[in-house]
Design a protein that fits this description.
About 50% of the residues lie in helices and about 10% in strands. The protein is of the alpha/beta class. The protein has a domain of about 270 residues. The longest helix is centred in the middle third of the chain and has 41 residues. The chain is globular and about 110 Å long. One of its GO terms (molecular function) is glycerol-3-phosphate O-acyltransferase activity. InterPro entries: LPCAT1-like, Plipid/glycerol_acylTrfase. Belongs to the 1-acyl-sn-glycerol-3-phosphate acyltransferase family. Its main location: membrane.
């Protein structure tokens, strides 16, 4: 028994040392990437076993789970697509069956709308040995695959989880101490330099608790100042970007665990926290953004214009607030690799989210720095926001959606409903106009008709009947 405990102790000591090294000098040793390469080989083995044991499908048979409906197959009823399903462009007049298009769209929205599915965990094409992403009991396909799954479960929950928690606690303590230390210095070049160095180091240390592997592309476009905007998948988006560059943050105030980071960050630099429900607070944020962006000595300020976390497959509507500031915008696209762990925040409690992250294999993502963009003369803030959003979605290989992400929790805006009503009312108006035109033509015909006796009229009617 003593031999078993000694073996367990040495395993924990070895893994803890590996995690400490991966949290500090992983750039030189490449420990995280080697770990990812090992996982890829394990996933490849599991996929081969699944494909080998999966019953052969008949010719022409398609697995429904592997052929999701494309975005273009389901038309949208939004302010960008005002015409309902079934309403043709060249329609003339109103008929009762025209309402069927609206009924069809309404029933489709109840069964599967175009918002909710983008706030659910991303479906994987292959199994990653995580039970929470399994829908078809892959772990019981074969004996060897079952053994791999059990060993992986024990490693993730009994070895990685407790040691990652230790790394996280150490990282938070290091982060708080470093930011408090930076806050003791007066504002100036030395404080900004020290803040940048400790900021990146502390975030990289905390990222070691998640075995984060981020690949940064086109680093020549990395922002130095001004405003940086990125798509939003997870609260750790800021953690990912901060392992490579120093940013000032803008975001909704939070309570609990996230408030620890916010208070620590506020000691060292000029971060902006606001309450979204307060309209006056939003007006102050715009002014503070202008002041911050105009100061070239301050770090770039990081903003997520979507305002909500989306499931890594699409980019929702960008709020126009940050695009009203007359300054250069640095777009950043983030795309997570869900094979190793889903970074999307869909849980109700933040503790459950952290637990899900720390019991995943790793967090892997790609980050693209896009060329800086500026608003064109005469271009509205909304049009500029849509242009930046389209660039980010294209680079990240995600779907560009016009929907407001807050529709997942809030009712549809009144102006959107009014837009649909106005579109439908046009057909009624067209029908009324046609009736009026026919009546006017009839009256003109009566006025222009030559006078004659009733016998002449009856003769004309008989000839017409013949």
């Amino acid at each position: 028994m003593e031999l078993v405990w000694n073996a367990v102790w040495w395993v924990y000591a070895f893994v803890f040392l590996a995690l400490i090294l991966s949290a500090t000098v992983h750039h030189h040793l490449g420990l995280r990437r080697r770990y990812i390469n090992i996982l890829l080989k394990v996933f490849e083995f599991g996929q081969k076993r699944v494909e080998h044991k999966r019953p052969a499908r008949r010719d022409g048979e398609v697995d429904e789970t592997e052929t999701p409906m494309e975005e273009g197959e389901n038309q949208l009823l939004s302010f960008e697509h005002p015409r309902a399903l079934g309403i043709e462009e060249d329609i003339k007049g109103f008929h009762l069956d025209h309402v069927l298009g609206y009924i069809t769209a309404g029933m489709a929205a109840i069964c599967e709308d175009n918002i909710t599915k983008y706030f659910e965990p991303e479906e994987l094409p292959t199994w990653n040995l995580l039970s929470r992403t399994n829908d078809r009991a892959y772990e019981f396909v074969s004996f060897r695959l079952t053994v791999c799954w059990i060993i992986g479960l024990m490693v993730r929950y009994l070895v990685l989880l407790p040691l990652r928690l230790v790394i996280l606690i150490l990282g938070i303590g290091l982060f708080w101490t470093s930011m408090f230390f930076v806050g003791l210095f007066p504002a100036g070049p030395f404080k900004r330099w020290l803040n940048k160095k400790l900021f990146v180091f502390c975030f990289d240390f905390v990222a070691g608790s998640l075995s984060l592997v981020a690949t940064f592309h086109n680093t020549e476009n990395m922002p130095k100042n001004g405003i940086a905007v990125a798509n939003h998948t997870s609260p750790i988006d800021s953690l990912v970007l901060s392992t490579h560059n120093c940013y000032d943050m803008v975001g909704q105030t939070h309570q609990g665990f996230l408030s620890i980071f916010m208070k620590a960050l506020s000691r060292a630099s000029t971060h902006i926290w606001f309450e979204r429900s307060d309209a006056r607070d939003r007006a102050k944020v715009i002014q503070r953004l202008r002041n911050h962006a105009s100061d070239s000595n301050l770090p770039p300020i990081l903003i997520y214009p979507e305002g909500v976390c989306v499931n890594n497959t699409s980019v929702m509507q960008f709020k126009k607030g940050s695009f009203e500031v007359d300054t250069v915008i640095y777009p950043i696209a983030i795309r997570f690799d869900a094979r190793f762990g889903d970074a999307f925040w869909w849980q109700d409690k933040f503790f459950h989210y952290v637990l899900c992250m720390m019991t995943s294999w790793a967090i892997v993502c790609n980050v693209w720095y896009l060329p800086p963009m500026r608003r064109n003369p005469g271009e509205s803030a909304t049009a500029f926001a849509n242009r930046v959003k389209a660039k980010i979605a294209h680079q990240g290989g995600m779907i560009d959606l016009a929907w407001d992400g807050f529709l997942k929790a809030n009712p549809v805006k009144a102006e959107w409903k009014k837009r649909q009503q106005e579109e439908f009312a046009k057909h009624l108006q067209m029908d009324d106009d046609e009736d009026e035109e026919e009546e006017e033509d009839h009256q003109q015909h009566q006025e222009q008709r030559p006078e004659g006796n009733e016998s002449d009229i009856s003769d004309l009617l008989k000839k017409k009947e013949e």
